[in-house]
Amino acid sequence: MRSDSTTIDVPESSAAAKGKAPLMPAPRPEKSPYKKGLAILDFLLRIGAIVTTLAAAAAMGTSDETLPFFTQFFQFQASYDDLPTFTFFVIAMAIVGGYLVLSLPFSIITIVRPHATGPRLLLIILDTVALTLTTAAGAAAAAIVYLAHNGNTNTNWLAICQQYGDFCQKVSGAVVASFIAVALFVVMVVLSALALRRH
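and the corresponding structure tokens:
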């Protein structure tokens, strides 16, 4: 005798179904126009800082003036390399300007990927170092420019800007440009800090 066998499909119980959790896609980070706007503003500020730092270095580096009169033994000339402070200023502004040019690709990365933390952290550290160097160079040069304009009677340092007008005009403009760069750096550091805080 042969018995017919039938197959009965039993639906899977809810307890068994609970053991197989469906694969859910990882949540995507929400698009934040706020972060992208900060990144774009940071890029524009870097371009402005490049212009100001390189302009300061160029103005100081070309600040040579020779008076139209001279004696048999002396020629009256003023140049930035006569003072170590101004030489330091030119070197510092050139270094900071070069750094800003090299930092542009990282700033572009923060625009393309606003949620990237690594480039932001790197920029805020290097920007702080560049801010310190720019402030030191600008402050040291400002002290010498003040003496060139006003002199110091206590130490018998005479003001030379009445004789070397073009020289003083260039070095004064370079110092002003350096402090504009300092202000731009401060804003960039604050923007990077805000962007990191929003993560």
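(Above: one complete record from the training split.) The longest helix spans residues 117-150.
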